[in-house]
Amino acid sequence: MQYKNGMEDDAGQAQAHPSRTAKVQEGQVVLPDGRKLTYLAAGSTRGLPLFHFHGHGSSRMEALVLDKAARAAGISVWAFDRPGIGGSDPCPGDCLGNWPMDVFAAADQLGIQRFLVQGMSAGAAYALACADHDPQRIIACSLVSPLPPPPIIRRSGPILRRWFWWMAARFPNFLEKRLQQIRPDVELTPDRFTKRLRFLEPWLGGEDHNLLKNPEIMQIFARSLQESTRQSNAANRRELLRLAQPWGFDQKAISVPLFLWHGEQDRIVLPQSVRRWLLELPGCQSQFYAKDGHFSVLALRSEAILQTLQSMSCRGIVPLSPRTNTDRF
Q: Which CATH superfamily is domain 5-314 in?
C-alpha cells in the first residue's frame, strides 16, 4: 500500500509533501479542531502502515526501537504523541474515546485508509479503542506488554497498582492532588532520568535488566521519557486517572484480529493478570516469552512481532467471528 505524507493548511486543504526517505522523520498533522498531532515515521517508506501508540510516561520516540525491524519486515511505523505529550497540542476534556477520532483524522491527512494498530503497555487501551471505533479500517491490533482494564488490575494486579486503581475509581480528586506531588512539572534532566531508572529497577524483570547495559536502547528510552514531559507532566497525570476509569467500550465485541505479546518475568504488568484478561478477549492469539520482562518484549522481540503482523496481512486474514483464544500462533 502506498501512502502520501501530508499536512493540512489553515484552510483545511492537504499540502502535498514528497514521500519520506529511508531516514526516520517527524512531522505534524492538523486535526479538524485545529490541534496539532505530532508523529514520528520510521521503518519502510512504502510498507504496510502500523500506528504505534506509546506507553505511559513515554512518547513517539519509543518507536525508534522498531525502526530496524520494521524496515526488514516491510512495515511503515507511524508513532503519535498523545494530546499534551511531546509535540502534540493538549485537548481540553480529553478522554480515551477521543483518541480514535484523532487517529482516523490523522490517517486521512496522511492518505492511509487501512492500517495496523499497536499499543505498548498503557498504549494498549488506545489501540483497542481504535479497533472498536472503526474495525473496517483496522487490519489487526497488536498488544505489547499490555496494561489490562481496571477490573482485571483491581483483582490481580500488583498490590500497589490495585490500591491506586481503587483510589482512582473512588477518590479521583484526592488522587489527582497526590499525583501532582509524585509527578511534578519538572524537566527530566539526565540526573532525574537516572533517579527514575533507580525507582523502576525493582519493577524490572528478566531481560529488562540487560537493557540497562545497552547504550543504544537506553538512549532511546531517555529521549522518549524526556520528550514525554516536554510540555509538563499534566497529560501523564491525567492519563493515569483515565486508564483507571472504565474504558468506555466493550472489548469482547472487538472483531479485528488481536495479537498479544508478553513477558513471563514482567513485574509491572503481571502475566497472571494478562492471562485472566485473555479470557475476555475472544480470538486473541498470544505469545508469552519465558525470559522477558516488561520493556524487553518491545525492544528485543520487535522483529518477530512485526514479521508476524506482516505475514498475517500477506495471507489476507480478515476479521473473524469470536473463537477460542490460543497461547501461541
A: Alpha/Beta hydrolase fold, catalytic domain (3.40.50.1820)
Sequence-separated (6 or more) residues with CB below 8 Å from residue 71: 22, 43, 44
Bridge partner residues of 5 (DSSP): 17
List Cβ neighbours of 142 (8 Å cut-off, separation of 6 or more): 50, 116, 117, 118, 119, 127, 259, 260, 261, 305, 309
Span 45-99, pLDDT tens digits: 889 999 999 999 899 999 999 999 999 999 999 999 999 999 999 998 888 999 9
Amino acid at 188: L
Cell of 289: 516469552
Instruction: Inform me whether the pLDDT recorded for 104 exceeds 70.
Output: yes
Residue 10 burial (10 A CB sphere; 0-12, 13-18, 19+): exposed
Q: How many CA atoms lie within 13 A of 34 on its CB side?
A: 3
